[in-house]
Amino acid sequence: MVNTPMFIDKIVNMTALLDLEMMEYSLLKTLKESIEPQELIILKFNCQGQPFYRLSLRKEKLEIIRENIVIPEEILTGIVVVSKTVKPYNFRVDSTKIMTIWHILQSKEQKIILVTTTAKISNELDTHMIKGLLAVYRNFYTVIMDSQRDPLTGLSNRKTFDETISKIHRQREQPQESDAVKLTEQTSQTNTGFWLGMCDLDNFKQVNDNWGHLYGDEVLLLSSQLMQAHFREDDYLFRFGGEEFVIIIYASNQEKAFLSFDRFRIAMEDNYFPQVGQVTISIGVTQLDPNIFTATLIDHADKALYYAKHNGRNQVFFYEELVEKGLIEENEIMIGDIKIF
Predict the structure, then answer these.
(1) Which among 177, 242, 263, 299 counts the fewest CB atoms within 10 Å?
(2) Measured distance CA(80)–CA(75) in Å, rounded
């Protein structure tokens, strides 16, 4: 039976978090203490139906998987059912396990599903409690998305950028014990596997001057849609303001990072924008180093972008490569270099 005061405290703590991932951790921990499951899983699928995120809690261990996610056939069947009925779907795994599929939410970008594994089917009280928690999650998902999204493009806004950088660094650190729950991430990604690209639409002022801000806004919207189509769901896309965007991706080396950014550049170049015609984009990229201030990382990417702009536009340049070739000067402040006077 649920301890009502403690349960209310859990809801208060969960809704105090304005970080979606942390709220999901809190949701699973609240469910764990309430229904004593064998395992809890949150699954996220993109608009093509492909899984791109798996958060699980089993035996005091939280685990995130972002790639090579395999979903058992019986779970996929259950997801099809709950997506149509929005009612929980139960099936028996064996004599000691019952799996239940719960619909959390469906947006135009993704579908989110909860999977609970328990020793018996949830009673009426537990079912009502779980549905209530998922409704709270849905409400705060909307609040968080609205506060973190640029209203025109739907991309993340600038104020979430620093939080995202900090989150990336935290998740790549050695797992730490926290609140008796161990968080690990099953991926080969490391801090140095992330790349930050600053993107700027070429000659965008001419678009506004020649066709007006209405067409300018349409170019920004269509550019953001191309961006979402050519990068992965777990890449980070931001509108920094005006015609400037920032993209953070994972790639194991510079060559792969270049291919990813250049593929998007080509897509922009090949796209026809109504009335306006062709619009190209310049991109400056730097490696995401946890030992360098975020402001300095932005400056690095901006310098590479500046070089691209002043050397032909419609190109991708890497800060580190430009420094190595002596084409721009290195200006770096490491976190460990700070001196207090």
Answers:
(1) 177
(2) 9
One-letter amino acid identity for 261?
F
53-58 long-range contacts (CB < 8 A, ≥24 apart) are: 53/233, 53/234, 55/21, 55/24, 55/25, 55/28, 57/28, 57/29, 57/32, 57/181
Beta-carbon count within 10 A of 232 CB: 15
Tokens read off for 142: 């909307």
Q: Which residues in the chain are classed under CATH 3.30.450.40? A: 4-148
Position 207 scores a pLDDT of 95
pLDDT of residue 9: 53
Residue carrying structure tokens 């799996």: 99
Structure tokens at 20: 């979606």
Helices 204-211, 213-230: inter-axial angle, 10-degree rounding: 140
Q: How far is CA 137 from CA 128, 161, 215, 247, in A?
A: 14, 23, 37, 27
* Residue 142 confidence class, pLDDT cut points 50, 70, 90: confident
Q: How far apart are CA 103 and CA 106, in angstroms?
A: 8
CA trace torsion 143, 144, 145, 150 (10° rounding): 100
Query: What does the pLDDT look like over 157-179, one tens digit per residue?
Result: 988 888 888 878 776 554 443 43
Closest CA to 8 of 41, 25, 42, 33: 33
pLDDT at 187 over 50: no
Look up the CATH number of domain 4-148: 3.30.450.40
Distance CA(72)–CA(77), nearest Å, equals 9
The one-letter code for the residue type at 17 is L
Domain 184-337 has CATH 3.40.630.30: no
Residues of the chain with CATH 3.30.70.270: 184-337
Q: What predicted TM-score, i.e. pTM, was given to this entire model?
A: 0.67
Q: How confident is the model at residue 290 (pLDDT cuts 50, 70, 90)?
A: confident
Helices 161-171 and 294-309 sit at what angle, rounded to 10 degrees? 110
